Amino acid sequence: MPDPCTEELLRLARLWISEGDADRLVGWIAWRTGRNQALAGDRPGIDRLAHAFEHWLDDQQREQLLRWLDQRLPRGLSPVPD
Q1: Does position 72 have pLDDT exceeding 70, yes or no?
Q2: How confident is the model at residue 3 (pLDDT cuts 50, 70, 90)?
Q3: What is the SS3 assignment for 55-82?
């Protein structure tokens, strides 16, 4: 069962992030964590994102990403840093 931070990240993602942005965010998380984004599997972007949140990020990284997304998404800004 995902931790509360992962659950909140997924809630925000489902509410605000398109499939294309989900795929871009998986790629960005993969790059930042030194992972190959193919490891997230061949499934819809939101499911790949859930995998990245849960398995590639530690607690501190999840909390930082949650703060980042919580500030950006409601304002219509991209979830992926420029």
Answers
A1: yes
A2: confident
A3: HHCCHHHHHHHHHHHHHHHHHCCCCCCC
Which two three-digit tokens encode residue 27?
């790629």
φ and ψ at 28, to 5 degrees? Answer: -65, -45
User: CB of 17 within 8 A of CB of 44?
Assistant: no
> The pTM is what?
0.90
Residue 49 contacts residue 17 (beta carbons within 8 Å) = yes
Q: What is the mean pLDDT of residues 6-14?
A: 95
- What is the residue type of 42? D
* 48 within 8 A of 26, measured Cβ to Cβ: yes
Cα(3)–Cα(38) distance, integer angstroms: 24
Q: Is 1 helix (H, G, I), strand (E, B) or coil?
A: coil
